[in-house]
Design brief:
By secondary structure, the chain is of the alpha+beta class. It folds into 2 domains: 200 residues, Bira Bifunctional Protein, Domain 2 (BirA Bifunctional Protein, domain 2), CATH 3.30.930.10; 43 residues, SH3 type barrels (Roll). Helices cover 29% and strands 32% of the residues. It contains 7 helices and 15 strands. A hairpin with a 2-residue loop joins strand 11 and strand 12. The radius of gyration is 20 Å and the shape is globular.
Length: 268
Amino acid sequence: MFSPLTFSMPLITFVTVISVLCILIYLQMKLIKLNAIDSTNEYIKKIKDSIEDKEIAVITFNQTLGKGQMGKVWLSESNKNVCISFIFKELGINVANNFKLNIIVSLLLVKVLKNIGLKELSVKWPNDILSDGKKLCGILIELNIKKTDITQSIIGIGLNVNQSYFGDLINATSIINSTNNHSDLDEISLKIISEFENFRNYLDNSDFNKLKRDYLELLYGYKIEKKFRISGNVFKGKIIDINSGGMLVVKIDGKKLEFKNQEIELIY
């Protein structure tokens, strides 16, 4: 037994350590933690064929050249944020279900963030998580497709945790800015990984219509008039749906229009 003379770890810290250890015991996927890397997505691409595991998670708190949507750079202050990439191999799902995959990723992350005390969470189509209307988390999903099947998916997650200053990025926020509390990066990482252990099960067994309803309830700007930028011009419109292919359906001047990613920008 520990005595007060030999063990002086604060109770809260002790409970946190025990919780993390319990999570580690039950995790099934292979974990790789890196001190620093240019991009966790690029790293996982390099090592995936040399590792037999069907599910791998790569973690770093120091990503120097993270990737965002359409080749954009995700900048992260060293040792203040969490960068995780997952690979799920041998998925074998039809490419027509690719947006189901996106929905599940967003819902799993929102669940984790709610459980650690974040409020006013929403999803900005297609893949950003917002807190109080500001970007908290970015997601990059890359697929391997053979004929009509998605064979594997690499999911990159960049979560702003203890970074409080974002320079000119006025629409960025973090957990510390939203809660005024410093967070343990290891603890948050393991909570995300633990939740993503359910990813394959959700993908195989969840009803798409139920998932879509949950996604639309979280969708930023859903059925609310917002400004959109299309081909350099600004229009007012309302998001009214996401179609089966994941395209955004917006009602502008009485017309229902469908947009792929990068064809429309929601101004927020």
